[in-house]
Design brief:
This protein is mainly beta and about 500 residues long. The chain is built from three helices and 38 strands. Strands 1, 2, 3, 36, 37 and 38 form a six-stranded antiparallel sheet that branches. A four-stranded antiparallel sheet has the order 4-5-6-7, with no helix packed on it. It has a four-stranded antiparallel sheet with strand order 10-11-12-13, with no helix packed on it. A hairpin with a 6-residue loop joins strand 12 and strand 13. The longest helix is centred in the middle third of the chain and has 7 residues. It is globular and about 65 Å long.
Length: about 500
């Protein structure tokens, strides 16, 4: 594999003829573009110990980069228990220690067993025997392992398999960063399995666990919701789950996610609609105290008419339509100042069929194109008031975006064409494969002002896409970008 060196973007971009309209407000340290092989197809960020960036491939193999973003080695790991294959759940990185958490179904004792296997960050080899975490005797319908934002706790969420008309229940076990058990509880809910399913999980930095579910009920009116959103909070000190309901009566909550504020408040945020669950009209916000069950604030607000009209066709506007279609919530983040950031994207799939005649038979081929288009970003204050919402117009297929945030605003990173840097609405935006391919940063400040910047031009008409990224601190954002033949890693200092 070729060597690479770290470069400051200001030097790297100096040789290109493309003129940067605005001075770049961040500093980027960029590794050299490197030919990729099968050992460097990163799908997720795992951890950083100050010397090694650990990345996971699309399977469960991992590899490391050094501080110069140079490939070091791969961990070609095979996890076994009693000579049997196991089911990998996720990696757990704590300070300088890396673990793989996995489980098996031990039929001899009729138990599901969870283990953690330590892995050396430097050699990528397994260290010692696995550590037993906890066991459960239930046949399981669902398993989820979640990690707190500061990596202080890991929670194991298991949902036993019950008959569809039986009340569901789940079991939660929490371990700390030393893998010591903290608490374990079974929680029964007064709802039948056929009526409820889990949509999201979260564990706070103090070890409390939150579960978001959708509760379906019999539809009485085709124009009204036939579901509610239920949030359950479980802690070490509680004997049963605290239940919260997110509902807007006759309006639809189309998407909802959760985060935990620095003071421990549970923040629930998403989109709502008057029409159904495939369009969005505005933002919904609910803030509760999980320790007391007290609702602190609840609010909703429609997007501004100008923002809606910006994304609708003239025909849709003439028909009086006032909602956006095919937008889905991706992320919510609660900042230290109490403001919540919502990020969503327009996503849809188109199909193309072609037929041909061969050997006396007609054959039909179906191709699917996955569209990831315009991004919508909103900032909501602690009372649930929408401070601003902004659309970042773009067109893309099979490529997502990455993001970072700090006290100054929100940063969205995506691929585009240089001719779109000055585009202000979707009517001006061209397909990103026209012009020079660039990595774009859209920055939205606290006043809702949007500026787009060229981070760097992808050489040789490459279209590198950020596959793995992570906020390493309040100022440092790591990213790993790749296409089918190359990769490039680096970090961005948000406050250079």
């Amino acid at each position: 594999m070729k060597n690479k060196i770290a470069l400051i973007l200001a030097v790297f971009c100096g040789s290109f003829a493309f003129a940067q309209t605005n001075k770049l407000p961040v500093e980027i340290v960029l590794g050299k573009l490197t030919e990729e092989d099968d050992d460097t197809e990163a799908g997720a960020f795992v951890g950083y110990d100050g010397e090694h960036y650990i990345l996971k491939e699309y399977d469960w193999d991992i590899f490391s980069l050094n501080n110069d973003f140079k490939y070091e080695r791969e961990g070609d790991l095979v996890f076994k228990y009693d000579k049997r294959s196991v089911t990998e759940d996720r990696y757990f990185f704590v300070e300088h220690s890396l673990y793989m958490i996995y489980h098996i179904r031990d039929k001899k004792v009729d138990q599901t067993k969870f283990f953690a296997q330590e892995i050396s960050v430097t050699s990528m080899e397994q260290i010692g025997p696995p550590v037993s975490l906890f066991n459960t005797t239930d046949d399981l319908d669902a398993i989820e392992v979640i990690i707190s934002d500061d990596n202080s706790f890991a929670a194991f969420f298991t949902q036993p398999d019950v008959d569809k008309d039986e009340d569901i229940y789940f079991e939660v076990a929490v371990v700390d960063r030393e893998l010591s058990p903290k608490w374990q509880k079974k929680v029964k809910l007064p709802y039948a399995k056929e009526d409820m399913y889990v949509t999201d999980y979260k564990i706070s930095n103090n070890g409390d666990v939150f579960v978001v579910c959708q509760l379906d009920f019999e539809k009485k009116d085709k124009d009204l919701p036939d579901y509610e959103i239920k949030i359950f909070a479980v802690s070490e000190d509680s004997n049963e789950a605290t239940e919260f309901t997110a509902s807007l009566g006759n309006q639809f909550i189309t998407d909802l996610s959760i985060d935990v504020a620095s003071n421990g408040d549970l923040v629930c945020a998403g989109y709502y609609s008057d029409e159904g669950d495939y369009s969005i009209k505005g933002c919904y916000y609910l803030r509760v105290d999980p320790s007391t069950g007290e609702e602190i604030s609840e609010n909703k607000k429609a997007f501004d008419e100008d923002l809606i009209n910006e994304m609708l066709s003239k025909k849709q506007i003439k028909k009086g339509e006032d909602e956006l279609y095919s937008y889905y919530l991706d992320h919510i983040e609660v900042r230290k100042d109490g403001n919540t950031i919502l990020m969503g994207e327009k996503y849809y799939v188109t199909t193309y069929q072609s037929s041909y005649y061969s050997n006396g038979t007609w054959h039909t081929t179906t191709n699917y194109v996955y569209h990831y288009d315009h991004i919508i970003v909103s900032m909501v204050d602690a009372e649930g008031y929408i401070i601003w919402s902004k659309i970042i117009p773009k067109y893309s297929t099979s490529e997502r975006y990455a993001y970072a945030f700090d006290s100054e605003g929100v940063y969205i990173f995506y691929n585009d064409s240089d001719i779109n840097l000055e585009a202000e609405d979707k009517e001006e935006v061209e397909n990103k494969y026209k012009g020079n391919a660039i990595s774009t940063m859209a920055m939205i400040n606290n006043e809702g002002e949007l500026e787009k910047y060229n981070l760097f031009i992808n050489p040789e008409e490459l279209h590198l896409s950020i596959n793995a990224s992570k906020m390493l601190s309040e100022e440092k954002f790591f990213f790993y970008a790749m296409d089918s033949k190359h990769f490039q890693a680096g970090y961005i200092l948000l406050k250079p």
